[in-house]
Every structure is written in structure tokens, then in C-alpha cells.
Amino acid sequence: MATAEWSVKLQARSGSRVKDFLNANLINILAAFLFLLLAFFLLYPILAVLLKSVRDPSGFTLNYYRVFFKADYYYQSLYNTLLLGAINTVVCVVIGFCMAYMTTRGPWLLRKPLKIISLIPLIAPPYLFALSLIIMFGRNGLVTRALDLPWQLYGFTGVVISQSLAFIPLAYMMIEGTLMSLNPNLEESAYDMGATEATILRTITIPLLAPGLLKAALLIFVMTIAEFGNAAILGGRTPFLAPDTYTVITGESDFNMGSVLSVVLIAPCIIIFVVHNYLLEGKKFTTIGGKPVASEPRKITPLVLVPFVIITTVAAGAILACFGVVFAASFYKILGVTKDLVWSNYLDFTSNQAIYNSIRVSFVAAAIGAILGVLIAYVIVRGKFFGRAVIEIISLSGFALPGTVLGIGYLLAFSTPPLKLTGGIMILALNCVFRFIAVGVEAGISKLHQIHIEIEEASADLGASFLTTFYKIVLPIMFPAFIAGFLYTFMTAIVSLSAVVFLVSPGFDLAAVKIFDAAVYGEIGIASATTMKLVLIVMLCMLVLDFITKKTRLGSSMKKSAAV
Amino acid sequence: MTTKEIAGYMRMEENERPMLILKDIHKFYGKNEVIKGVSLEVRKGELVTFVGPSGCGKTTLLRLIGGFTDVSSGDIILDGQRINDLPPNLRDTRICFQNYALFPHMTVAENIGYGLKINKWPRDRIEARVRDLLKMVELDAFGDRMIDKLSGGQQQRVAFARALSLEPKVLLLDEPLSNLDANLRLVMREEIRNLQAKLQITTVFVTHDQFEAMAISDRLVVMRDGLIEQVGSPIEIYERPANEFIAGFVGYVNFMEGRVASIGEKTREAVIDTEYGQIEIALEQDDIVHGDEVLLVIRPESVNISLDRCGKGQNVLSGALKSYMYAGSLAKCTVKIGDRTMIIDQYNPRDAQQFKHAEKVEVEIPRSVHLLKKKR
């Protein structure tokens, strides 16, 4: 509607036909351009993986799939991966729910500290937990030696624990969001009608939260089965799909088998994506909105309070312990083995070089990603052309795709001329850009939804061309979204491991890869110190982001009051 | 409050005995005192409205009665029982929230029957009770509907029926009409009032709309800043407001300063000296004495306005007509008297044509004007 009106107005105004056409269709041209970019850097690599899995030198074949489904090893790997996903999902959702319930309904005193602890893993690379478990329960682990334990944590249990700890904050954030948006009056009404805490949970809170819980569960399932680092570091002899892909590619250079493994890993993601988008659509409960009120703490019966407190404290304690252990380990050559406090881990040249490389790659990725994110968001929200939803789905899918898949995809797609990108910083940066493009797009979309189209229409009405409006009105308003997109992409890119591990070239190490290698080779001190450096960088980004969101929110509320 | 005091209350006659007593209620959020000592008695079957500007503490007070927040000090007595420490699920009060808080995953009937089910009523009794309640709020055919398939007014009725399902001793209504459009609001407030009167259910109503409050209540509790400013019937509040705030809160008011020049011993005829001359009034208050500095509370509709005939009658001031806004059933006149502006509502303005071009008018201050003692 809106763009159509513009075009009529603009056609009536300026003389040149070419100019008119450009003005009226700029958003469509932009959309086409962005679509091409997404197709080339996101769809094409995936396609390359799909093709590779069914092709051998003689042509089309399903042989590799036959091998996959016949071999006991791969069957075991698939089974382990799905079981890991299922267990992790349940654990994370349960713990996330308990934590979210306590921080939104529990006593004031508990809310803030619990919230901070549950969000700590957010600033940590997911493999921090694998690292800390090695330090505590590995072959030379602190606890292993102190208690002379006969078993080690390598294998399924270790992966489950480290993965669960790593994905608790995601579960917590999603569930907290849905709990916060649940009108507290609903639970109060049930309370008022005579229901006890447990009854309220059973009859009101959980049924109303079900769609949100399911959503969180699906996302966590997808992310767990695709997660590479923890399984690779702690898996030991237990096979999982994501690390297997890595071994097949780097160890055996078997791209066909690697592609098959990737496709098998994508399948559940696609199924879940479809379920999420089509089956859960409209499965949201709507109620008449009142003013949103923070829930006042209720007197929670011990029957509910005690188990909740136990679960949350254990989880929070474990998270804190893991962090503390890695922090401590960063000051010893090998914690528990060597006795001297040393700085050398922090001064290690290769580690610092890797950090520097990571910053460079992530910075480039963040800059490109934020710009593209804002543009794609604009096209999705304001564009009126056919296929808008397609662009949205493609750009949001990068995040849900297993990193290993995009890693192999980039290797396959961009390693031969004329598109030879491998071996440089660009392939790493572009990989991060398109894997995490959803982050910038989401930031842009949410900001754009806050801006009334009338502002742009007013600008057009006053005679501004599309470009002028975009430049003078849209961009300044979108600036916070750009910054948010930039920082988010930066933080995500700098800790990400699963895709770049395929793409780093010898002599150009990234921090995440360095940590992975160091952990695998038992250089615990260096792995820990590098992890702490990453944590510090991510923390700084978070602080800046927090500062900016607070500032811009203040700005928008000031605007609002001025308008009144 | 001691048990003895409570027992004292219980010896009163049934219809005299207060259903709900608030005794010196204080509420702190951290260091912030939001309720600063409120005492009130609500009789059985009475509809009392808490009214005041936003942030005055009226909703907090309602939540304190419902048990959703703990009082910091003071007592809440419900039907002779101190309920301070009882959680909401054990209090015999039911609340109806502003946003209705209907359970969106349940049907209308399930919503209304929720409390009955929780309280372990047998199924056939629940069904019968729900049917009765649906009939009462005229939603007989809607039992199986989901909540989001109802209009705002219908949702409001469901919420009302649900709150009444367990026959609470006190019904708490938190701005129940504010989500409805203007016409529906008038209809619903009449319905609520009629049902409340029919069922004789003690009700505490919270609103920020002073006109709604006056229309629906037996008594108004005007609150400001965590304190009760005045308690009284709508007529008392409107005609004899306790202070300037209340006078202005329940409607537009013109103030005029003056000093009591004389008061007739028997007749209670008072003469007030003002800048614009003497005003005679029939004094109804007995707290006003000779020499008091007072404010005359002059309501816009109480003043007679007429075209200037250059003759001075009793209580007649002349002024300049600054604007005359004709709006059919009434005309709003802005009259300048001395250096003060007075707003006057002229009802049934038949000679509007003449007023439109008039410059000078006479206004007659009624003898029934209420006086406010000026604080020194």
C-alpha cells in the first residue's frame, strides 16, 4: 500500500522516467540484490553439500547414504546425537523453567543474583564447560585425583553435562520471556479462586506456557545436536555426528561422507523448523491487555519452593564452579599438577595471535553483518513484493543450521576458482556473516516495528525521494539496531567454533580453534587463558550493548513524552 | 485491633455491622510509603468506590484487601475475622481484574467453574451453578465458547460471573470498565450496579473516573497520595467537598475568595465580603464563624447567567462575556469578573442568538454555595 502510494506521488512529480522507475522500485531492486547475496552465500553452500552427498566421480549415487545407514558406527553416532539432544532439551527446559519461575515469581531477594548467574554462560563460549569438566574430572582432573575416582567424564555423560550447562541460559531467556509476558493477574485470579501454588502451576501457568516451552525445547534440541565443541572435546570414543563430520573431513578428506553426515544433521533441523513455523503458528493465547505489571512475589508453598530452589541452586552452583575453575586454571600451567602461579598463559604468543585474528575476522563479519541485517530487515518489514517471507526464512535459517554444515558447504563452494576464497580472512568473515545474519535481521526487524510507517510516509509526502527518506529518516532511527546487530554478531562470531574449524588455514588460527586444539592436546593453562580473554571481550561488548540499549530506550521514552 | 474490639463490632445489628474494616493500614514498598494510614468501614451490601488520581494508592489498597500484597501495619477485618495473614486463596474475597484475567485456554463455562472445581464441588453442582451464573449475566448460549471469541463486554460479564461463583463476602472490582468503549461502559456499570444491589453483595470498586464513581456508588472514598481525603455519598462529595482538591476532582469548579462579614444567629443567613461585592448565602455548615477567610465553591451549572439589564439584584455580579460556546443542550460561557475568569454552564440555552453578540452579562451566585474554610 504505502510504497504504491509513494510511487504514484513520485511519478506525478519528477520528469525523467528512468528516475521515476528507480525511485519507485528501489526497495525491490535492493531486495533482489539482497536475495542474490543470501542465495549465493547461504543457499549455494548448502546446495553444494546436498549435491556432494549424492555424487561420486561417475555421477549420481546413493552409495554414501547406504554406507551411512549400514555402518554400526554411524548408527551409534546418530543414536547418541539424538539421545543427547533429547536429554539436553529436557534438562535445559526444566532447569530454565525453574530459574525463570524463581526470577519472575520468587522472592525479590533471589531474583537478581539468580538472573545474573543464569545469564553468565551467555558470555562464555559453549566449550568453556567442556574445558572446565576436563579440568575437574579429566584424566588429571582435580576431583579425579583428589578422590582417586576410577572413572572419567569423557564420553556421553560429560557431553550431556557440559552441553546442558551451556544451553541453560538460552532456555532460561526464552522461558523467562514467555513468563514475563504472561499476565500476572491470570495466576492471581486462580490464587484468588482458592488454588494453591501447585494447582496454579498445573492448571494455569504450564498450560499457558506450553507453546513457549515447546518453542524453547525445539530450538535447544536443534542447537544441541548441531553443537560441535563440547562433543569434540569431551566425546572421547563416543561418536556424535558433528565431531564425526570433522574427523571425516580433516582426517580422511572424505567430502562425500562428510556431506552425508551433514545432511543427516540438517534433516531434524528442517523438520523442527517446519513444525515451529507452521504447526505452532497461531498457537498463542491472547488476552485483553492491561498495563503490564511485574508479578509481586507470592508466598510460594515449600512443596513447590524447595524443589525449585534445589534445582536452581545446583545449576547455578555448577555454572559458577565451571567459571571459577577455568579462571583459576588460566593461572597455572596445568591446574592441580603444577604448583606455580604463572602469567605465561596470558602471554602465550600463539594464543594472542589467535585472539587478534579472531577480533579482525569478527569485526569484519560484524560490520558487514550489521549493514546487511538492517537492509534485509528493512526490505522484509517495509517491502511489499512477492517472496518477502522467503527472504525472511532464508536469512533466519542460517542460525538454525548446524555450523558444521556451513563449514563444509563453504569448503565445497568456495575452494575452486573462480570463487576461490579459502585460505584468507574473507571466507571466515563471510561464513560468520551469513551464519549469523539472523542476529542483525532480528535486531533490525524489532526496531523497525517500533517505527510507524507514517514517519516515512510523512517524509515522502514532503517530497523526499525514497533514497533521501531512507538516508535521512530510516538510517538514523535504525542506528541503535545497527549497533546492536554489530555487537551481537561480533560476540557470536568471536566464540563460534563449529564452522570456522573447517575453514582456518595453517598459520591463521582463530581463538576458538586455538582453545579447541589446546584442550584436546592437554594445554589446559593456555586453553583456559584464551577462554578468559574471550569472556572478557564478550563481556565488554555486553556492557556497551547494555549501555546503548538503556540510552536509546531513554531516548524513545523522551520522544514519547514530548509527543504527549 | 484486639479480639475484644472485633467482638464489639460483632455485637452490632446485622445491617449495621461492617463487613469489611480497614484499621490504620500502612504499606511500604522499600522506603516508599504508598498507603499512609487508611481506616475505613464498609457495611454489608454496600458498594464503596475508591477514587483518585493515578498513583493515589487505590489499586494497592484493593490488592491489600485481596491478599496479593501484605500490609506493612494495620488490620484488615473481614466479617469479624482478622485476615491480614491469610493468602488470597483462603480469603473470602474475590477480585475482578481490569484486564479480566480470564483463562484463555478454557471455555467460558470452565472459567466460571474454575473456583468451584478448585474447591472440590461435585460435578453436577458445578454444572448447575455455572448454568445459573451464565443465565444471570445473560450468556446462556456462550458456555462452550473460548474466551477470545467473546466481545469485551461479554468477557467482562464472564469475569464478573467467575468472581461471584463462590459467593464471596466482599467483591473487589479493579477498574472493571476501563477496557470498554464509552457506550458499553454506561450499560455495564448499570448492569453491575443492578446485580450488586439485587445480590446485596458487599463491593469495593476502584476507578479513576470520578463520574463513574459518583454514578455507581453508595459511598465514595476519595484518595490522594496514599491517604483518604474524604468519605461520603456522591451528593455529599459533590456538593460539600472537604477541600479544594476534592471540589476540583469531582467536577469543574470556580473558586471565589471572601471573608464572612456576618452570620444570622437563627436564620444562618451569612454575608460574605468579596472583591466584587457582598454575597448572601444560606449557610448549612456549622464550622464557619464570623470573620473566617473562605473560598466559595461555585459549580458552573449552579450559576444563573443573564443579559446585562444594568439593574443590581441580590448576589448579582456583572462581567464581560469572553466566549460563548453553544453546544445544543448547553452553552459554555467564559465570563470575566474583575480580573477573574468564571466558567458557567448555561443549560437549555434558548436565547443563544442574543448571547452570541452580548458583551456584558450578569451572573447570579446561588444562595446554596458551599464554603471552604481557608487554611492559615
N/C terminus separation of chain A: 28 Å
Strand content of chain A: under 5%
Structural class of chain A: mainly alpha
As laid out across the biggest beta sheet of chain A, the strand order is 1-2
Provide the residue-averaged pLDDT of chain A: 82
Strand share of the residues of chain B?
35-45%
Radius of gyration of chain A: 25 Å
Mean pLDDT rating of chain B? 89
Shape of chain B: globular
Which structural class do you get from the secondary structure elements of chain B?
alpha+beta
Which two chains form the greatest contact, residue counts included? A-B, 27 and 33 residues
DSSP summary, beta strand count of chain A? 2
Shape of chain A: globular
CA-atom Rg of chain B in angstroms:
25 Å
Outline the low-pLDDT stretches of chain B.
none
Proportion of helical residues of chain B: 25-40%
- Strands of the widest sheet of chain B, in order across it, are 6-7-8-3-9-10
